[in-house]
Design a protein that fits this description.
By secondary structure, the chain is mainly beta. The protein has one domain: Immunoglobulin-like, CATH 2.60.40. It is about 10% helix and about 35% strand. Strands 1, 2, 3, 4, 5, 6, 7, 8, 9, 10, 11, 12, 13 and 14 form a 14-stranded mixed sheet that branches. It is globular. It starts with a helix and ends with a strand.
């Protein structure tokens, strides 16, 4: 009987802890988080259209984990990726509520807005460093690089980051938060050529792997949340933990 009570107590503690950090996982133990990225011979119009033919048969990544307390607002967030010889393509779909965007300048505090984020190492070894591209619902973005254990980091040069073509679907001004259900989309393409100026890049092709994670946040919205694809085991919201990245496998 004492043993049974001990087991129940341990289970209760585990459940309580998990509501704060999402799914428990050890660094480097995200091998089951794999997104297969298909190739394309066409370069699509970047127009935030989730349903266009280009995205047919692309794998869909769903953000089901969270950091911090279980949020009262958990927007359904999905991502699709494809690639060609020169670019990687990304599109997000967010079924949202309590939508806000104040940042209006490149490399501003877009993460405080309704925001989607792509963190990635352009190869299988996170020790080479990583990028983070963060885009709010109005298409305003920041992009940074991090390498040498954060000793060498900064914003990607504006002349380079401006070569990233970004489109957004939301047309309504949301500087004052809106509280109605809205589905919004962000689509962009990232040229490999700008990445290789900062970090060694394994150009995507069959069998090539990158490390990555996807996030949805809204730090300064009325219903803040920090959602992740691959789970991040940390006691408070923090996305800059590449040891928890999942995998992109190019087909």
């Amino acid at each position: 009987m004492i043993y049974l009570f001990q087991r129940l107590f341990i289970m209760l503690i585990s459940l309580t802890y998990s509501q704060y950090v999402g799914q428990s996982v050890e660094p480097g133990k995200t091998d089951n988080y794999i997104c297969y990225v298909k190739s394309s011979y066409q370069s699509p119009a970047i127009n935030a259209n989730w349903d266009k033919r280009f995205w047919n048969k692309a794998d869909v990544v769903r953000l089901k984990n969270h950091m911090g307390e279980m949020p009262s607002h958990f927007p359904e967030t999905q991502v699709k990726l494809k690639y060609d010889a020169d670019n990687i393509y990304v599109i997000f779909r967010v079924k949202d509520h309590y939508i806000r965007a104040v940042a209006g300048e490149t490399n501003g505090k877009v993460y405080e807005d309704s925001c989607v984020e792509f963190f990635f190492t352009p190869g299988p070894d996170i020790s080479r460093g990583y990028f983070n591209l963060e885009v709010n619902c109005m298409g305003v973005y920041l992009m940074q690089y991090h390498k040498n254990n954060e000793k060498d980091q900064g914003f990607v040069d504006l002349n380079d980051s401006r070569l990233i073509e970004i489109s957004h679907s939301l047309q309504e001004n949301v500087e004052n938060e809106i509280t109605k259900p809205v589905t919004w989309y962000i689509e962009y393409k990232i040229p490999y050529a700008i990445l290789s100026k900062y970090i060694q890049v394994d150009t995507p092709g069959p069998g090539i792997q990158w490390r990555a994670n996807f996030y949805k946040c809204g730090d300064k919205t009325s219903h803040p949340h920090w959602l992740t694809w691959a789970p991040v085991n940390y006691p408070k919201p923090r996305f800059h933990l590449p040891e928890y990245f999942g995998w992109l496998e190019f087909k």
